[in-house]
Structure formats: structure tokens, C-alpha cells
Amino acid sequence: MSAPDSSPQQIRTVTTDLLKINHPIMLAGMNVAAGPKLAAAVSNAGGIGVIGGVGYTPDMLREQIAELKGYLKDKNAPFGVDLLLPQVGGSARKTNYDYTKGKLGELTEIIIESGARLFVSAVGVPPKQVVDRLHEAGILYMNMIGHPKHVKKCLELGVDMICAQGGEGGGHTGDVPTTVLIPAVAELCKGHKSPMTGQPVQVIAAGGIFDGRGLAAALALGASAVWVGTRFILAEEAGAPRAHQEAVRTAGFDDNVRTIIFTGRPLRVRNNPYIANWEENRQQEIKDLTSKGHIPVEWDMERMGDDVDDDTMDNARPFLMGKAAAVVNHKKSAKVIIDEMVQGAVDTFHANTSTLSGKMLEARLEQAALLKKVVDAIKDLVQDCNFDCNDSGIALQAMDNSHVALVSMMLKSESFSPFRCDRNIALGINLGSLTKVLRCAQGEDILTMKAEDAPDVVNFTFESAESDRISEYDIKLMDIDQEHLGIPDTEYAATITLPSSEFQRITRDLGALSESVSIECTKDGVSFKCNGDIGNGSVTLRQHTNVEDEDKNVEINLSEPVALTFSLKYLTNFCKASGLSKSVKLCLSNEVPLLVEYSLSNNSFLRFYLAPKIGDEE
């Protein structure tokens, strides 16, 4: 997924997959208040940024998209465009008019040419031919709604996503509360699929969502992502004027109001004396004007003409914001806002699921091959071991039967998506049994590991990435009394990083001559030497930098010379992990075990510790 600044994915939904984003967070298209810079920042951080405005001309839209793409760190990162498309004429509001001024077809082609991933229609629905044209170009179509009665029309048009915005939201909004609207819309969408993707129509939640608890609640109510506006007005990258940001930052719980005086449609804004005067003293005037197709504020400004004072003029410019403004008080970067929202949702799920019986561990690996390679690398050293699961990830530590070598593995929680562990638990598993089960997975299969509370078995599910095939296996757990050794931090005298394939070749070649190898590291390089019954062997490596292929580099950091002897049988076993990493790190100091480390993604690792041979053992 194209998001250079994104934190690792922790919440995966159908919507994150469809939009190719890491996090189920969309920036609301808030005209100038959002803007291209903020939209790009949201996309860079793993969400999807959406630009939107009132009355875009084709040239304006081209400029806005070009500016957005200029800020994208990955030019292929997804973004969206939001247009206001109210119904005009017939039974529609008399104040409605065509914001596109007859240019919707041209605007649509610009959106298609730009490579946008998402098109959003607000305050109305687009013509069917526009939806079909977008789908032909592979662009997802989402429609904003504020009432369940609008779902039917969207489904008939072939909508891919419906953004249901509750009355707490800023800007144009209905009066149905978010917690009532989302489940109602989710129920109406059941059984309906997108004609373009074949996936169920997705519900996106909006209205009053500003932190991780709101994201978690939205997902629980049936949404698969959230559309966030007010919180992002106080983003560092937002285009909102300082006065707008201050209006949000200082707003209290009773400081915004829904009014139709600005557009003829209910619009939630920050209240002020001018708006209050309309709402409290001029209601009949509002009704009379809107029934004739007049926008009250526009009519008022024309009526006052040159006599309008500065205060009235300022108050006639609305600051759009939702109810969440009362609790949005601090300016932060878009990335921090997104990361805090995602982590807050994950923490909320963990806090609330830990009190429930049933599933307490769920860890999903995009590539089953990773765990398969790890187990293949250690199964000849360790037969039975505990997989220790906690909120940091899944760890393993075990000695071989001879107590000569120690295996230490850590798969960080960031390696999984999702990862859930409600409490610390040790899963005792026979690696021979686990190997047999993992062989049932194909190379590209997705693996999910699950365990109930107080489990007797651990469940492995393999999901084909290319078909609808799903297979499940249960492995009986063992009660293993295994002591955890405290591994002290060591300042090693020598650290050598070299290609895994090179280390594997050295152990293989020297292993044909002898059972032991001496590793000597000096300022001149590192030497691997052996003496055997049939002869001697030696391989020397010097520091080397390959500009074209960093994986072929040899790096040596030395504080003092060191020379130790080790069993080649064990080193050969360690090299079975070569497929996990293109490089391997060897750490040596006199009189302490050798550390052989294979680094994995997301700061995960597989480490082997091997005691040196001494005296007659050599």
C-alpha cells in the first residue's frame, strides 16, 4: 500500500483493501478548510485524502489535483474528489442550483485522467451515466447521506460505498444521530454488492468522530471506515484560515447550530450573533425567502449593500464545524491525528474484549511462508517450545537438548494485521506437529493463528490469496515447563554483517572438512578456519561495500580482536534461516556465546546463541 509515512496497518477492513490504504480513515472534502496539502498528508500517512469544493471550474479542479499530487510522497498514492451535486428543479429545494454550472461531464473526465481512486457525491446523487463512466475507469463511487431514506436511490445507481453522516457532523448534515444512522444504513445495505468490485456495499461513518474511541464505535456499529472533518481542521497542514481554526479550538458544547441561511440546506456552523438573530427573530423571513429560491444571507447582503458593517460581513462568513469541535482543542500533524486515532481504536477494542470469554488471541500474517520458514529453521534444534503471546507480539525462547544453543524469536505485533492478545499466554507446541500443519499452506496463503481463553488447542487458518479456498487445522497444546533465561545486553568486541548466502556457503564448505570452525576477527578482516582429518580450510572476508546491491555488503565493526571456536554442526543448522533475511549478523566477544541474528520486518528477529568450544572440545 502506497503510504511512505504510514505506521503499520493495525485495522484492516474491506474499505482499506478497496482503497489500498493502511488505515480506515478518510479526510472529509472540506473545501478550503482541508485543501490539497492536508489531503496529501492524510494519504501519505496511510488514510485517504479527499479534496472537495463548492463551484469547482474545470481549471480549478485541475489545479487542486495537481497541487495535491505535488505533495504526495508516492505519486501513486490514493486520493479522492468530492463534489456537491444537489437535485435541481422538480420537487427539490427551491434554493438548490447546479454548482458545476453544466460542467459535470468535463469535471468527471478530469477526475478520471488524474488517477483518483474515489469520487464522492454530496447533497445529492450523480447521474447514472457518470457512475457508469467512473466504474469503467476503475474509480470507486461513494455517496454522502444523512437519512436512511436516501439509501435506496444510491443502491439503484450502483454505489460502492455510502457515507452516512449523523447530525453531529459539520457542514451539510441531517438530524439523525450517528449512533442511530450507522446501524440503520448498514442494515439497509445488507445483501447489496458493488457492481464494480463485487464486494458488499460498504458503510462509512461520519458525524462526531474525532478519536480512536469514535473509530472503534463506528466499526462496531457496522461501518468499515470513518469520514473525519472537524478534527482535521486543527491539523497543521489544514488550509483553514486561522480564524476558522480558532473558532474550532475555542468552541464549547453549545456553540454550533444547524441553519439553512447560508445555502438553503441545513448546515452545521459555529454560532454567532448574526446567525442567532436569524434563528431567533427571523424564522418567518427564512421560510419566505427559501420558498422563493433565495438564499437568506445572500439576499441580506444585497439588501444592505454598501451599508453592511465589518462585523456583520465577518459573521456572514460561516465557520463549518461539527459537535466534535467542543473536544478538539489541539493542533497536530495529520500523521499524529491518524496514528492516535488508530491506536486509540485498537486500545479500545483490547480493553473491551478482554472482559469477554472466547477468543483471546488472533494474529494474522499476510504470508504464511514467514512462520513456515521460522519453524523450518529451528525444528532440528528444538522439539517442543512455548510460543509466548502478549500485546507486544509472539516470542519464543528455547534451549536445544544439549544445552549448547539457545533459540530466541520475536514476531512483533506490527508484523500481524490484525493482532489481538487480551492477556499474556504461553502456547506449548510440538514443532514437528506444527511443521506438518504449516506444510498445508501454499506460498501466498494468509495465515491466521487463533486461541480461545484457557485453550486446549491452537487454530491455524490458511486463506488462499488467489481463490476462495480456506482451510483450518487445530493443534493440541502441551504443558511445557520452560525456564526463560535473562539474556544480558552485551557490548560485543566484534560485529560482522554479511550476506546470508555467504555465511551458509562458508559453513557448508568448511563442514565438509571438520566439525569445528575458528572465527577470528582482526583489523584486517574476519577469517573462518578449520582443521580436519582430511585437511584444512580457510575463508577470509574483508569489509566490502557494493553500491549496486547493499545486500552483498560485508561490514565489520571491531573494538578488539577476538578468536573463538564453534561447532559447525550448529552453525549449519542456524543457516537454515537464510531464507528469512538477505543478511546475517554475527556478534562475538571472548568468553560469551556467539550471537547469530537474522532480522525480519517490523523489528522482528530470529536469533541463535551458541556457546564456544573450550579446551579439549576444540
Automatic annotation (TrEMBL):
Q: Enumerate the InterPro entries for this protein.
A: Aldolase_TIM, DNA_clamp_sf, NMO, Pr_cel_nuc_antig, Pr_cel_nuc_antig_C, Pr_cel_nuc_antig_CS, Pr_cel_nuc_antig_N
Q: Which Pfam families match?
A: NMO, PCNA_C, PCNA_N
Q: Where is the Proliferating cell nuclear antigen PCNA C-terminal domain?
A: 486-613
User: Would you tell me the Gene Ontology cellular component terms?
Assistant: PCNA complex
Gene3D superfamilies (UniProt xref): Aldolase class I, DNA Polymerase III, subunit A, domain 2
Q: Which organism is it from?
A: Zymoseptoria brevis
| Single GO BP term | regulation of DNA replication
Keyword Oxidoreductase found: yes
Coiled coil stretches, renumbered: none
Tell me the compartments it is located in.
Nucleus
Q: Write one Gene Ontology MF term.
A: DNA binding
Chief subcellular location: nucleus
Highest taxon above the source species: Eukaryota
Q: What does this protein do?
A: This protein is an auxiliary protein of DNA polymerase delta and is involved in the control of eukaryotic DNA replication by increasing the polymerase's processibility during elongation of the leading strand. Involved in DNA repair. This protein is an auxiliary protein of DNA polymerase delta and is involved in the control of eukaryotic DNA replication by increasing the polymerase's processivity during elongation of the leading strand.
Keyword entries, A-Z: DNA replication, DNA-binding, Flavoprotein, FMN, Nucleus, Oxidoreductase
Residue span, Proliferating cell nuclear antigen PCNA N-terminal domain? 360-482
The family line of this record is:
Belongs to the PCNA family.
Q: What is the official name of this protein in its record? A: DNA sliding clamp PCNA
Fetch the CDD domains from UniProt.
NPD_like (cd04730), PCNA (cd00577)
